[in-house]
Amino acid sequence: MINIKNLTKIYDKGKTRALNNISLSIEDGEFVSIMGSFGSGKSTLLNMVGGLDTPDEGTIEVMGNDLSKINLSKYRRNTIGFVFQLHNLIPNLTSMENIQIPLFSEKLKSSEMKERAMVLLNAVGLDGFCDKHPNKLSGGQMQRIAIARALVNNPKIILADEPTGQLDSENSEIIMDLLEKRHIELDTTLIVITHDIEIAKKAQRIIKITDGCIEEN
What we know:
The protein has helices at 42-49, 72-79, 95-100, 110-123, 139-151, 169-186, 197-200; strands at 2-11, 16-26, 31-35, 57-62, 65-66, 80-83, 157-161, 189-193, 205-210, 213-216. The chain is of the alpha/beta class. It has a 6-stranded mixed beta sheet, sandwiched between helices. It has a 4-stranded antiparallel beta sheet with strand order 2-1-4-5, covered by helices on one side. A hairpin with a 4-residue loop joins strand 1 and strand 2 (16-26). Helix 4 (110-123) crosses helix 5 and helix 5 (139-151) packs parallel to helix 6. The chain is globular, with a radius of gyration of 17 Å. The two termini are 16 Å apart. The model has no long low-confidence stretch (mean pLDDT 90).
């Protein structure tokens, strides 16, 4: 599914190596957790797999496609579901409208978009919140909306960057249950960045990154 070879990313005009010659493979349908201290390079790695950033050296292949040779906007839209730590919901849109954002480019009928969004609202237990704006939601509710948005286009890969980092233990369990359920039911590849060892242990494999290098794989 994902093959990374000799990946290097350098910032600050060569002063900071966020990633240093990383090589890694992740199988189709695998659940992997990535752990590392702040600034270790784990979010940089996730962003490059998601096509949000590009390497200075090395290659990333996803399903046999070299990301440097394809349309990254189309790749993100059709293949990737992002779950960010801080939700990234649009404040002036309702829960329903936020979930529909990945569908806008698919030229679907409005009724079909609403139907798909409602299915996900039900799945995350927030079917009564479709007209609520983010400022009317709790942190856990916002994160569930963010997950629904990430899943609405049926992505083959889910990338979750500290999805429970701002949540209490109860909401953390809800969020992880949702992600695991999707991973199991649809054989979706799931990559989760976390500082929580108990969450990391839920994965089939833990990858540890230190100073831009893979410590354990």
